[in-house]
Amino acid sequence: MEWLLIAVATCLLSLCPVKGNEWRLEYEEGLRYYSEDALRKEFPEKTRPISFKHPLFMCPDMSPSSSVPTSVEWVKAADIKVITALGDSLTTAIGANATTVLGIPIEFRHVSWSIGGYGSFQDVITLANILRLFNPNLVGPAPAKTVHGTPAPLCETGFNLAVTGHNTFNLPEQVRHLIDTLKTYEKIDFDEDWKLLTILIGMNDICDYCKDKSLFSVENFVHYMTVSLEMLRNEVPRMIVNVVQILPMETLREVQKPTPGCLLQRSFCSCLVKPDAGSADLKELIGVNLEFQKALEQLLYSDRFFKNDFAIVLQPFLKHADPPRLPNGKIDMSFFTPDCFHFTMKGHEELAKGLWNNMFQPEGEKFMVESFSNPIELSCPPVGHPYIYTRPSASKTGPALPEIPQSAGITPASLYLMLVLAFLPLWLAVNLVSL
Predict the structure, then answer these.
(1) Percent of the chain beyond pLDDT 70?
(2) pTM, 2 dp
(3) In CA terms, which of 136, 264, 298, 340 is 20 to 30 Å from 363?
């Protein structure tokens, strides 16, 4: 019976095209260590009961701007018309609601932290479902689940164009696919609609580092990120890009249980899991992980990717994140799928809340998760600045004036008069002193 179950899974995964073969082979290899009982074992604590509901999230100001913003600095949540996402298995949400290890190849895109569109906010907290509270007509949330490697249409993926198993060198390919898709999609205005893209990628580079240290070097990571982000900057108008800082991955070695399920972890991230504690190989990998984080900061804490209608923002909330733990200090396994590596819906919701909060915090003041043991409290956009923060510190040469809609009754002439009156006391003081 064991061989039959493995054969079924292998047959299902054989539909994968070439670019998904490595992930598929790793998964198949992991399954070979399972007993029949282990393959059949269900994990009810890792799934969400259908009857579960979150309290409704409401903010003082949930309205769009009175007119479509022309500056990337004055975009409110309700001004976002299109949501998109790129990355790897963390964004495809592989296994996120799986009940057995045989469900790991299912991509639960509809509950993915950055773009899942299942139900409503009360059903599952995702960035897309939060934004739909502000703009119910948001285009792009992923509406369904898919099977890894099996071609899926946009009606199933939405604009979640992430690919399980992809490394950073695959990101330019994903970006090209996204740009071409947005340009030809009839339900959006490519030039006029404000678009939000979230990218999280690079963890697979860490997992594969020992296999090819040149291909998965820090220099290549920066190169392929730069190529991808320049494509977006040069070709896509009215877009805000969240680039999420990668996790510190060493502590994922602690996500272990004496179950066959955790053997898959050794397949998916062997360079992290297999080295002995304190070994030179592990120390090198931890150092590379830190260098990836620093390189991303050096690339994005600049005004290189900032212009009037486009901005790329590094959202750092995961930079120091420790896995969720129980009161006894052990890992809370309810946050991890049966493969002991990917996040369940519970983990995805915390990622969504962390990202949302970061979007409305200025550079240098962004919240960073210390431990997922403490649920993140969702925050409303500040009343005094209800816009997504996009201006990098490197370009702050002076305070910018907000766009003032004509409906507010303020004309350019009256604005000029206000400025004159504001500076008149200072002018008088200086000139009286000179007398």
Answers:
(1) 79
(2) 0.85
(3) 136
